[in-house]
Design a protein that fits this description.
Elements (H helix, E strand, L loop, with lengths): L2 E8 L2 E7 L4 H5 L6 H8 L4 H16 L7 E3 L5 E3 L4 E7 L2 E7 L3 E7 L3 H9 L3 H5 L4 H21 L7 H4 E3 L8 E8 L2 E12 L2 E8 L3
Antiparallel strand pairs: 1-2, 2-6, 3-4, 5-6, 7-11, 8-9, 9-10, 10-11
Helix pairs in contact: 4-6
The structure holds coenzyme A.
The site of coenzyme A has 17 residues, from helix 3, strand 5, helix 4 and helix 6.
Amino acid sequence: MPFYKKINVDSKTVVFVWKISESYNELFHSVSLKDNSLARMEGMKSESHQKGFLAVRMLLQQAGYTDFDLYYDEFGKPHIKDGKHISISHSFDFSVIVLSERNIGIDLELRRDLVKKIARKFAAEKFVYESEHNSDDFIRKLTVIWGVKEAVFKVRNEIGISFKEHIFVRQFEMDDKQTTSLLDFNDTKQEFEVFFTEIESYTLVWLWETEK
Ligand SMILES: CC(C)(COP(=O)(O)OP(=O)(O)OC[C@H]1O[C@@H](n2cnc3c(N)ncnc32)[C@H](O)[C@@H]1OP(=O)(O)O)[C@@H](O)C(=O)NCCC(=O)NCCS
């Protein structure tokens, strides 16, 4: 299946989702790439990564842009030339982008057992360990927390931010579909509005800074 879903979050924000079932060649011949994008893609080791990259360009086209409208700053953060904010994520079979008038972050993660093994490295949130007796809930919540922290990092990418020490996710239930998060780093406290949903075996999170 190609274009999978568009989520109209509100008047300022749209999420686009691509499910990758095409061959590399099909995707490659459906997009036009800048020379430096082509060089970057050719340097990628796995075809799966290349397809994720190309699927992002398919989504850009779906949203009325092309690879020529996209550029990256020195930290690797993507930007759109017309000033709209963009955030990008890819994971195995899916690529996602979000376009917004707000500075926004998105993250897509495959839910897997592995997250339990690394939980103590990135999650100090006590409430999530309360659901440990229910393994499925534990994995689902941990994956949301992981996604929030990746997405916060994409909004405020600064050297020294630790997922465990500086980014906190407030208590939520899976049915809530939203929560809030705090980045407490270098004497600055930044609050975020967090939204999450599940697509097949993946967890999708997007967030933006709370307006003061
Ligand atoms: C940059 C980072 C957030 C990417 O997340 P990821 O889950 O590995 O990969 P995703 O597919 O979700 O996101 C990749 C996209 O993020 C975007 N990105 C990369 N660097 C970025 C940055 N500094 N700021 C914002 N967005 C960035 C890019 O668009 C990239 O895709 P593209 O290059 O194909 O366009 C992540 O690799 C990272 O560095 N995290 C912080 C390090 C850390 O603290 N790790 C865990 C400690 S426990």
